[in-house]
Amino acid sequence: MLVMLITQAITPNALPEQFEVSRQAVSKHIRLLKECGVVEQQKADREICYRSKSDTMKETDKWLEQFRQHWDVRFNQLDQVLINLKSKKDEN
User: What is the pTM of this model?
Assistant: First the structure.
C-alpha cells in the first residue's frame, strides 16, 4: 500500500480493489500512516486522495540507516560462521 502511495495519489475507494481487503481495513491503515506523518490527505475536486510525504520518508530512511548498517555487519558475521561450519563439515 505504501509503495502505491509513493508512486501516485490514490483514492480510498481504489485501494481495497488493489489489495482485496475491506474498505475498513484500508481506512485503518491509512489512519495509522497519517498519524505517523507518512501519508497526507489531499482534496482533488470532490474526492479525497492520499499520497506519501516524501520528506517524512527520507527522514525515516535516514533513521533506519543506522539499523541497516548494524544488521549488514551482523549478517556478514553470520555468513562467515555458516561458511566456516560448512567447510568443517566438508572436511569430515
Answer: 0.60
Give the count of domains, the chain. 2
Residue numbers of the chain with a pLDDT score lower than 70: none
Residues 47 and 65 in one domain: no
**Structural domain range at position 24:** 2-52
Q: Do 38 and 8 lie in a common domain? A: yes
Tens of pLDDT, residue by residue over 33-43, are 999 888 998 88
Q: What is the Cα–Cα distance from 58 to 36, expressed in whole angstroms?
A: 14
Q: Are residues 47 and 77 in the same domain?
A: no
- pLDDT above 70 covers what percent of the chain? 100
- CA–CA gap between residue 25 and residue 1 (Å, rounded): 11
The Cα 50–Cα 35 span in angstroms is 13
